Amino acid sequence: MEFSRNRIIKIALTLAFLCCMLFANFFAVRMMLRYGVDTYFYDKLLVAYTIGGTKGLKMELDKITVTDKLRRESVLAKDFASRLETLADPGAFLTGKVQKSKKMAFFIRNLRSAAIVLMLILFSWKLIVNSADNSKSRKSV
Question: Taking a C-beta distance cutoff of 8 angstroms, is the pair 112, 25 a contact?
Fold first, then answer.
């Protein structure tokens, strides 16, 4: 079975469309959720640190471990609690974490948008090619 050039191009475009669809609808959404929870968690701790200092930070950290709404948030709380004693400047650490999480969430969102645009282009191109093929076949009949 020999593949023609057109068939190879169609298979490659279909695979590209499939990869974009999977990324845009599954992977990117999960990654944005993860970075969103990280941003929310560290921003909440940063506000507590800004208002109440280290005492306010510890109080907010204790509240988070008690309420335990999100699994990811409780994991981050345990990790941060163990790291808190070794931090020289918790405010700088929290600010860096918030900025990094926001930057990654925006980056993933932009990649998702690019994947959606690429899917639209591929879909439009396929419609145009199919309509051109159909008009050629009608003219020859």
Answer: no
17 versus 68: the higher-pLDDT residue is 17
Write the Ramachandran bin of 39: left for phi over 0, alpha for psi from -120 to 50, otherwise beta: alpha
pTM of the model: 0.79
User: Over the Cα atoms of the chain, what is R_g?
Assistant: 25
Q: How far is CA 56 from CA 26, 79, 85, 88, in A?
A: 37, 18, 15, 16
What is the overall mean pLDDT for the chain? 88
Give the CA dihedral 48, 50, 52, 54, nearest 10 degrees. 90
How far from 53 is each of 47, 57, 60, 82, CA to CA, in Å? 9, 6, 11, 18
- Measure Cα distances from 122 to 10, 13, 131 in Å: 11, 7, 14
Do 105 and 39 form a contact (C-beta atoms < 8 A)?
Answer: yes
